Amino acid sequence: MPQIFSRKVNSLPTLTLLGTLAGGVFAVLFVWYYFSPKFTDVGYAPQQPVEYSHRLHVGQLGLDCQYCHTNVKNANHSNVPATQTCMNCHSQVRTESLKLLPVRESWATGEPIEWIKVHKLPDYANFSHSVHTNNGVGCESCHGRIDQMEIVAQAQPLSMSWCIDCHRSPEQFLRPNSEITTMGYDYPEDFLTANLARIVSEDIQPPTNCSACHY
Ligand code: HEC
Ligand code: HEC
Ligand code: HEC
Ligand code: HEC
Ligand code: HEC
Asked: 194, exposed or middle or buried, with CB in 10 Å at 0-12, 13-18, 19+?
């Protein structure tokens, strides 16, 4: 008797089952990938070419962020300091330290220190520091307690939903512009009322339309 269905069909249920399983695994991987800190990069803390410590320089010596990150209030891009900024002190302080050898080398050769970038948005997303730092969003809200970090680690996901969560209810995050670089800022009890009033008087309207962040 001729076979009506080829032998292959017999394996169809098995294949379907395998397919379902694979699909399931894929869905799990997908969810795992998109929601895990690995994807959002929270905790990413690459080893830097110099053991520069924010805990020492900010937490203990008390330097303001803008001593080194001079552009944060007037440009989209926040700069990492040039070697000259380090040498303001280190031409006199710890001049023999081996930990500072790469800094002295950079100074001598004029080759910049190759700091490894920690925070990075994809190119298709626009971000400006100055618009945030001039409208009451503190460094701490996006970068965490930098003053306690021996090595800089990414504190927030920097994902689209994270951006938009704040854009929908900025009153929960704003602080006076004079406190932008303060670490461990203590929100006063009535801060929500004060922020709501400020949002109206200064017409603070963070965008939620796609084209504001993607052109
Ligand atoms: C004495 C100079 C100095 C001061 C003051 C300073 N920083 Fe930095 N900062 C650096 C250097 C150098 C790097 C690059 C190396 C590193 O990541 O540690 C850096 C890196 C960073 C990064 C990571 C940049 C990236 O690659 O994504 C953030 C965020 C940052 N600083 C925030 C702050 C904040 C907030 C303050 C104030 C509370 C501050 N810094 C004060 C020198 C400084
Ligand atoms: C305002 C002055 C000042 C500036 C600017 C400064 N430092 Fe320092 N730094 C110090 C002091 C003071 C110490 C040492 C504290 C101590 O005695 O332990 C130090 C210590 C260090 C050490 C540890 C040295 C060791 O032997 O333990 C490193 C590394 C370092 N700084 C890197 C940098 C880098 C990189 C920059 C520029 C981004 C920088 N510093 C800018 C004041 C400064
Ligand atoms: C609203 C959130 C937000 C605030 C507020 C904010 N940052 Fe950032 N910062 C970011 C994001 C996002 C990036 C990555 C930008 C990119 O890849 O284009 C970044 C990058 C940086 C970098 C790395 C620049 C580079 O290209 O290497 C430094 C340094 C930095 N921020 C310092 C600061 C300091 C200092 C303050 C406060 C004065 C501050 N930031 C406030 C979100 C913020
Ligand atoms: C903690 C709160 C907060 C977070 C987080 C935040 N923003 Fe904002 N954003 C604001 C505020 C406040 C403004 C100012 C609105 C105004 O000036 O009316 C703003 C303004 C903007 C603007 C408008 C710029 C302009 O020229 O008008 C863009 C674009 C923007 N944010 C992008 C982002 C992106 C991208 C992220 C995430 C990587 C982000 N923001 C995260 C609070 C936040
Ligand atoms: C406040 C800023 C902001 C607004 C408004 C915004 N996006 Fe995004 N979007 C981002 C950022 C930042 C990323 C990058 C996220 C990351 O790297 O994880 C992103 C990523 C994306 C991606 C890449 C896929 C993904 O999920 O990572 C798509 C697609 C996208 N946005 C579409 C949109 C559309 C459509 C709208 C309007 C409904 C919109 N965005 C509004 C900031 C914004």
From this structure: middle
Calpha distance 89→96 (Å, rounded): 13
103 lines ligand 3 (CB under 6 A): no
Rounded to whole angstroms, the Cα distance separating 213 from 163 reads 10
Distance from C-alpha of 137 to C-alpha of 130, rounded to nearest angstrom: 10
Query: Which protein residue has the closest C-alpha to ligand 3 atom 19?
Result: 119
Nearest ligand to the C-alpha atom of residue 165: 4
Terminal Cα-to-Cα distance of the chain (whole angstroms): 66
Q: Is ligand 5 within 6 A of the CB of residue 37?
A: no
pLDDT tens digits, one per residue of 74-101: 888 889 999 999 999 999 999 999 999 9
